[in-house]
Each structure stands twice: as C-alpha cells, then as structure tokens.
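hey can u check if this looks right to u? its 164 residues, i copy pasted from the old doc so theres a chance i mangled smth
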Amino acid sequence: MHEAATNLLHKAVAALEAEQTDKAMTYLRKAERLPYDDYGAASPLSLAAHMYAFRAVLDAHELGHGLWVDAADIVLEPMATWKPLAMADFRHVLTVVRDDYPTTAAEDRRLHRMVTGQQVATIREMQELAGEELCAVVLDLLAIVIEYDVRVGMILDERGIDDH
C-alpha cells in the first residue's frame, strides 16, 4: 500500500506544481482510500506525505551550508496560511533531522527559535484525520515542501553554491 500511496502522492505533487489543485486532490483522495497499513501502523497517505517531507529536508541538510534551516525559516514564517497540522508535521520533520543528523550549534539555536511555542506534531496526529480533512492537511504539507524546495534552490543560486 505504501508504494501505491507514494505513487499517487508524486502525481499530486506534479499536479500542484502545475497549479492543478483539483487534480492533486483527486490523487490524494485515491490515496486516502487505500487500506490502513498495519505494518507501518499508519494510513498510507499520511505516512507517504510525512516521508516526502522528511526526504526533502534531509536532502537539503545533506547539501550543507545551513540551507535546510535557512529555507525552513523562510517557509515557516509566522504569517503562513497553511493548515496548522501541516505546519506542525513539517516542524516535526525538522526536529527529527536535528535530532538524528549532525547539526551546528547555530542551526540548533535557529531551529529552537522556530519551533519554541509552536505546535510540533507527529504523524500520529495526522492518523486521527480521515477523508477530506486528511487530504486537505496533506495538500498543505505538499505545498509547504514544494515551497521549501523552491527556497532551497533560490538560496543555492543566491550563494552561488553548486548542488551537485
């Protein structure tokens, strides 16, 4: 089920990047109807969305230069209009990368400032959602990740860093 959800998620991302929100929601609805994954102890859609966000942040972290925190700081500005649970899941991904991978003291301080006093949710909170509510949160999480990737690319360009 996870592979099917991931495939539908990637199609939803492509639709969002093409500014076809209705088409993206169609893919997310199909993924949401997939059976619960007992092995992963998660709905395939929420797990695939969470892992998609995790991979994007980890990829940026691996580029170095503090890009992963710089882009997150821009994307999670206080005035962002994304659904709170989508932002909370993205913050959780940031804290997982911080806790599980090498970071600098400056990155730790900046990330601490970004998450202190803010909702930080795990995939478990997303598990409580279903139907349109889950699809709407995942749609916003995908939008956050797309914007995050764009910001990472812009920062790379601004600083003249080759990402290869």
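The chain has eight helices and no strands.
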